[in-house]
User: Fold these one by one.
Assistant:
Number 1:
Amino acid sequence: MTVFCLVVERGSLGDHMRDVLFLGAVALLQDRSEERALRSSQCEGVVRTEFRPAQLGSICGTKFAASLDTDHGRVEITYIVRDRDIDNETARQAYFDRIRGEGGSPWISGTLEFTDDDLACYRAVPPTRARQN
């Protein structure tokens, strides 16, 4: 899961928050919503988009903005998620939904709530797909 941060105000992002922001972006694009509340064990807030494209060098995608409350205070983030990463994640979510036996994505309506298990599940990469460093 990759987000490309343009601006981070009053804080920093760890892997957990990046994963929440990425999955929030995926849900907004799938649902064609402009705003959605987010909640996880480490942060809570809102992610927004106007569905405008953005570019930073060779990185192109959809621009998002988020305001997250954390244990260390409020963090404001503006970031880009590439379309190809969204397409890959949409296919990945469908796969995990089938494994879980759910009828659809649990992040489509209401507040997007992410457990640590959800994030670990999506972060796992099958050994056959892992890149060599």
Note: The longest helix spans residues 83-100.
Number 2:
Amino acid sequence: MYYLKNSLLLILILTLLITMVGCNKQEYTINKINVDEIYTQEDNEYYVYFYQKNCPYCEDCFEVINEYINNPSELNLYVCDLTNNQEIKRKNQSGQGPDGGYLVDNVSDYKNLWIAGVPSLIKIKENDNSYYVTSGRKNILAYIEYLNDKENHKHNYVDGKCICGEIETKEE
């Protein structure tokens, strides 16, 4: 009887521990928008971060994005889940981005938007036109870090251009 009680107690403790570990996923306070709301926000200038559920690279970005959103900042950032919104998750042949797969620049209607992959970040200005900013975990994290501390930003040039937009000049 003694062993039976201890066994049941041990099973109960293990079950609770497994449940607690499984529920350890952090929830974020973020401004979620639907695809049809991408161009309808009231802010004059804002960013839209595209992600999908079960994307480990997207999850890595959420921690930094959440920290940035919950601190007073100039950045108006919205997030849009493309898990069930395949209508704009498509690949263009001659657009923006590293392989031309994005059609974002000067688009003002979500039906004309092409987002080749996640995670991705675009900027929308007051005239409701959008602009490709960057894509991929490393680039998004670098861009948000740049936005967070523009004054102390150290230029990191890739193919002659920094994430902040500055073009590398060669000194002769």
Note: The first strand starts at residue 32 and ends at 33.
Number 3:
Amino acid sequence: MKKVLTRNTSTLYGDRSRLVGDCTELRGDCTGLRGNCSGLIGDCSELRGDCSELRGDCSGLSGYCIGLSGDCTGLNGDCSDLHGNCTGLRGNCSNLRGNCTWLRGNCIGLSGDCTGLNGDCSDLHGNCTGLRGNCTGLRGNCSKLIGDCSRLIGDCSRLRGNCTELIGDCTEIVGNLDDIEITFGTNIMELVK
């Protein structure tokens, strides 16, 4: 009888030790999970900040592109006026023979500059259109990533709750085993007497 009691006591102590070890490991895993969740929350906050900054930059770019479009339209008008003035000057050249060659050269040069500036405006307008498209794509990516972050943070909150519950269960089970050990130990002592 004493051998059976000793064997049962050893088994009980061994089970308790394993359970305490499992609970300790669970606590460590939960602590790691809490750390990962805190890091995730920090990363998501940083992402939200970056996305807000991107939205601001894109809004600024949109305003710049609208202003550039207005400037290019104004430049087109100025070039048209200049072209008209050059045409008028050519008509007056018959009266001002000496200065006409110089004026014609300047008008041709200015017309070339206007053509070049109009080309630059077209290029810039194309670049603005491309950048606006990129901004739209990046805004979409930001919205998706922020949605993913919100879901992950929700998952983390649930897992943290589960961890807290499991640790509570472990503590209760270990406490119950301690009570059983005390009762079992007392009964063995009574039998051995």
Note: The chain has one domain: 2-192.
